[in-house]
Amino acid sequence: MLASDYDPASLPDLLPLYYKRLFPFAQYYRWLNYGGVQKNYFQNREFSFTLKDDIYVRYQSFSAQSELEKEIQKMNPYKIDIGAVYSHRPNQHNTVKSGSFQALEKELVFDIDMTDYDDVRSCCSAADICPKCWILMTIAIRILDRTLREDFGFQHLLWVYSGRRGVHCWVCDESARKLSVTARSAVAEYLSLVKGGTETVKKVILSDPIHPLIKESLTLVERYFTRYALHGQEILSRKDTLDKVLALVPEDVRKDLQQDFQNEKKPETRWKLIRDHAFRKTATNKKSHHFEKEIMLQYCYPRLDVNVSKGVNHLLKSPFSVHPKTGRISVPIDLKELEKFDPFAVPTISLICEELDRPKPGEEDEKVEDKENEKDAAEKRRIRDYKRTSLAKYVKYFDQFLDSVSRSWKGELLKKSDLQKEF
Ligand SMILES: [Zn+2]
């Protein structure tokens, strides 16, 4: 059996090894402690664990990295979720007067799931993904990342592969973590463009003037549209998919196009004909017709699960958690490598555990010289451990991300200490 052939039945055997020798606890704590700028920020954070047989344990919280480590190594959760920072320690929520236990802060998060695109992809459906439809996730990341940085001014965005069929975004800026439910809803609504469920045929309707968000998004969609829609999904080449596209144009145009397409089979030329019709109709009617843009957006614009973004107390699967079905680790995605990111190349827990046991030529166990530093030694050993596996490059990228976030909390700490000096 290949190491990449993950068998869900092996998960209980692999998790103890993963949490003991591979899970990047130091980085994880460094992230969620945010430099200790705010008191009890880590201690008041909710974690929830999914254990064997779908037993779900909410309101876990930890006083320090060591406690988190110990508990995770004891429970060996199948899945870890991260929740909000509360007013009190989540594990003591029952002892707090009712009503005073409240979710105060959390990263602004986004959840994009491939199943929400089932009406515009014909290569796969439901939980399945393939390189053809993965382009949708690339487009979603490009558009949301641009918008969150340029329109909202956020800087610290952590993109994470969910381990199966989607991606998550954690906006870690202090201002994002402090957003109210109302503000989060407003951001999520601003970003939502594709409206309506399965019964809705036309899910994007544009009006003049076209919003800058849409113009910018269209520029990004154009980079992928031919590859994704015309070639990958063959939306203009097959009868069933073509009918779906034609349902999105005005009736008179549809008739003309059906005529034109009898002699023209090439998808690029067919697409050009649709565009020409939109321009011509706009010119003759002296009224804008944006159906070609609407088609592009309906097929490619990111589809968010807005409820995940709206709630401060909504839980989201943690980075470096394992996906129990696929065995793949939820790894951070380096956007500099986004075009090359291949979800099928993301390491599974079985692969990295096997890599750990592969003897490396010339490698000898370093002797722990100083007995007093055994804890340090254990930490060092763990660092050496993950570096021997395919997990290394993802932890390295996470480190770089944390270095950049830490520059902002160092600024905060400096401000604080200056204030203390003044008084
Ligand atoms: Zn697919």
For the termini, the CA-CA separation is 67 Å
Count of strand segments = 8
The CATH homologous superfamily name of the largest domain equals DNA primase, PRIM domain
Characterize the largest beta sheet: strand count, sense, and whether it forms a barrel.
Answer: 5 strands, antiparallel
Helix/strand/pairing class, anyone? Answer: alpha+beta
Question: Which H/E pattern describes the elements?
Answer: HHEEHEEEHEEHHHHHHHHEHHH
Within the CATH hierarchy, at the fold level, what is the topology of the largest domain? Answer: DNA primase, PRIM domain
Layout of helices and strands:
Elements: H1 11-22, H2 25-33, E1 45-51, E2 55-60, H3 65-75, E3 79-86, E4 103-105, E5 108-113, H4 131-151, E6 157-161, E7 166-171, H5 174-177, H6 181-191, H7 212-232, H8 239-246, H9 251-263, H10 267-285, H11 291-300, H12 306-310, E8 316-317, H13 349-357, H14 374-387, H15 392-422
Antiparallel strand pairs: 1-2, 1-3, 3-4, 3-8, 5-7, 6-7
Helix pairs in contact: 1-13, 4-7, 7-11, 9-10
Structural overview:
The termini are far apart. The model has no long low-confidence stretch (mean pLDDT 93). It contains 15 helices and 8 strands. It is an alpha+beta fold and 423 residues long. The strands form 2 sheets. Strands 1, 2, 3, 4 and 8 form a 5-stranded antiparallel β-sheet that branches. Strands 5-7-6 form a 3-stranded antiparallel β-sheet. The protein has helices at residues 11-22, 25-33, 65-75, 131-151, 174-177, 181-191, 212-232, 239-246, 251-263, 267-285, 291-300, 306-310, 349-357, 374-387, 392-422; strands at 45-51, 55-60, 79-86, 103-105, 108-113, 157-161, 166-171, 316-317. 47% of the residues lie in helices and 10% in strands. It folds into 2 domains: 8-189 and 305-422, DNA primase, PRIM domain (Alpha-Beta Complex), CATH 3.90.920; 194-300, no CATH class. Zinc ion binds next to helix 4. The site of zinc ion has 7 residues, from helix 4.
